[in-house]
Design brief:
alpha+beta; nine-stranded antiparallel β-sheet; three-stranded antiparallel β-sheet; 9 helices; 24% strand
């Protein structure tokens, strides 16, 4: 069987936004900038007796005796938790972000003709768009502190400090953002500081060998001794005596996964067709997958998925400008996109 036109069996791209893990510290809002004012947050193990609160079978739920017997059963749980100290009211999150260029070169491609077509598509995008739209959106997600995830909810004040570091690790430029003043449901706000940072990110993405290293520190005033939320570990074995919730830590410091931070930074897709109804950006994914909703917002049946759009671009077809942004954002995300010969 002849191979389909414009397909390639080996095709992979390295991610171009590379965040570190995020480390959590506690401090006070008034003293947050003072040296030595922060302390690493530790995980605490708790053993609790919960109630039976799941939906029961009708035969049990409708029989008072059976229901009482079920409720009497102890729902014992051991969980990890994390909170600020009793005199601390502010969470500090610290991580770094490396931005890489050279999108013209896949990390793996076994079809020379396909590679030429791909490079032409990316070069045209660089010349016409220069990654400016993507750069500003990534910068906005730094400014609005989307990467705090659940820690952002209910915060009274949030300050984000982004510092560009040079090759020797020295400060070159610093931007300060009041995160509460930036939207998280759209990217329409025009802001000089966001535009400046976004332009720097865009220039790096459009380059052949440059890289950009950003140091990000975020302070969120959430209240004294309040609980904070590191990443939760995926535990497949939850047998007897196992913790029902295991949180992430690095060298004894509560932390957030680099993958979780990266997901927040690439939550820029407002180009899917249901955005008008949903009014929420989604993370850039080949099928627009949002796992907590159990939905794929870019269904191949609607020809909105990455592979359909990417194939159209490689074939020399014109697609909507917004969808070009989306395709390039998936390439920035990276991944393995080859098509099997079988």
């Amino acid at each position: 069987m002849a191979k389909k036109k414009n397909t390639v069996s080996v095709l992979a791209f390295e991610k171009k936004l590379v965040p570190s893990d995020g480390y959590l510290y506690g401090t006070t809002w008034e003293n947050r900038h003072e040296t030595g004012s922060t302390t690493p947050l530790k995980l605490v193990e708790k053993s609790v007796r919960g109630t039976i609160s799941n939906r029961l079978k009708p035969a049990v739920a409708n029989d008072p005796a059976k229901l009482n017997a079920e409720v009497e059963k102890p729902n014992l749980q051991t969980v990890d938790s994390c909170a600020l100290g009793e005199d601390q009211d502010t969470l500090k999150l610290h991580f770094t972000l490396k931005v890489l260029g050279n999108l013209l070169e896949p990390s793996a491609c076994n079809e020379p003709e396909f590679l030429k077509a791909y490079q032409k598509v990316v070069q045209n995008y660089i010349e016409e768009e220069g990654f400016k739209e993507l750069g500003c959106r990534y910068a906005m997600n730094l400014a609005n502190a989307r990467f705090l995830w659940r820690n952002r909810v209910g915060a009274e004040k949030i300050e984000v400090i982004v510092t560009r570091m040079d090759h020797e690790g020295r400060d070159q430029k610093t931007w300060r953002f009041d995160a509460k003043s930036y939207p998280i449901r759209d990217f329409d706000k025009d802001d000089a500081a966001v535009n400046e940072l976004g332009e720097l990110i865009a220039q790096t993405l459009a380059s052949t060998e440059d890289y950009l290293l950003l140091d990000i520190v975020c302070y969120a005033k959430i209240g004294k001794a309040q609980e904070v939320y590191p990443s939760e570990e995926l535990v497949l074995d939850k047998g007897q005596g196992k913790k029902s919730k295991v949180l992430y830590e690095v060298d004894g410091i509560a932390a957030m996964h680099s993958q979780k931070l990266g997901n927040a930074l690439r939550t820029i897709d407002t180009w899917y067709s249901d955005y008008i109804e949903e009014q929420r950006p989604i993370a850039v994914e080949p099928y627009g997958a949002v796992t907590n909703l159990g939905r794929a917002f870019r269904n191949p049946k609607n020809k909105e998925d990455f592979f359909t759009l990417f194939d159209q671009l490689i074939a020399g077809e014109d697609i909507d400008e917004d969808q070009r942004h989306y395709v390039m954002a998936v390439l920035v995300r990276g991944g393995v996109f080859g098509e099997s010969d079988k």
